[in-house]
Design brief:
Layout lengths: L35 E2 L6 E6 L7 H8 L5 E8 L6 E9 L2 H11 L3 E2 L2 E2 L1 E4 L2 E2 L37
Antiparallel strand pairs: 1-8, 2-4, 2-7, 3-4, 5-6
């Protein structure tokens, strides 16, 4: 199995208004933090958090089914208690359906708890933008430390 190569579809370069393509409209899909949402392999996945522990799949399906056809939904349960863990992943086929769910359902109440809805997958910022994590944590030689220092080794010479 390790010897076989995976077939990868070439990216669609046509500038169409198809909601399932990755580039043309994906820039319009932004998370609450301003990151660009990206499509999963089969559709657009949103994450819903702050779900009441006694909510059931039907409650969530009724609420989010208003925004479009739900292709897939994962409502994780606690093994010990059997209650909902507090989040669910919902997959829509089109970006428009997912954007509508994020926009309209964010802040709605379900069983007296305010839901938080956002895109589950986002594109990381381009390299070279943002701050360097190690800035300000460099030693006097100009290199960042790879690991923490041992106790008693604050630049002192050790005795043999």
């Amino acid at each position: 199995m390790a010897d076989t190569e995976m077939e990868i579809d070439p990216p669609d370069t046509a500038d169409t208004a198809d909601a399932t393509s990755t580039d043309p409209k994906a820039g319009d899909a932004r998370t609450a933090a301003g990151a660009t949402a990206v499509r999963s392999i089969e559709g657009w996945i949103i994450i819903v958090t702050n779900i009441h522990e006694e909510a059931n799949e039907e409650d969530i399906h009724d609420l989010f089914g208003e925004y479009g056809e739900i292709k897939n939904m994962h409502l994780n349960l606690d093994r010990r208690t059997g209650y909902v863990k507090g989040y669910t992943l919902i997959e829509y086929a089109t970006l428009d359906e997912a954007k509508a769910a994020v926009k309209d359902a964010n802040g709605q109440e379900l069983l007296e708890q305010k839901l938080t809805v956002d895109f589950a997958f986002v594109r990381p910022p381009p390299k070279g933008q943002g701050q360097n994590r190690d800035r300000g944590r460099r030693d006097d030689r100009g290199r960042g430390r790879g690991r923490s220092r041992s106790p008693g080794r604050d630049g002192e010479d050790l005795e043999d």
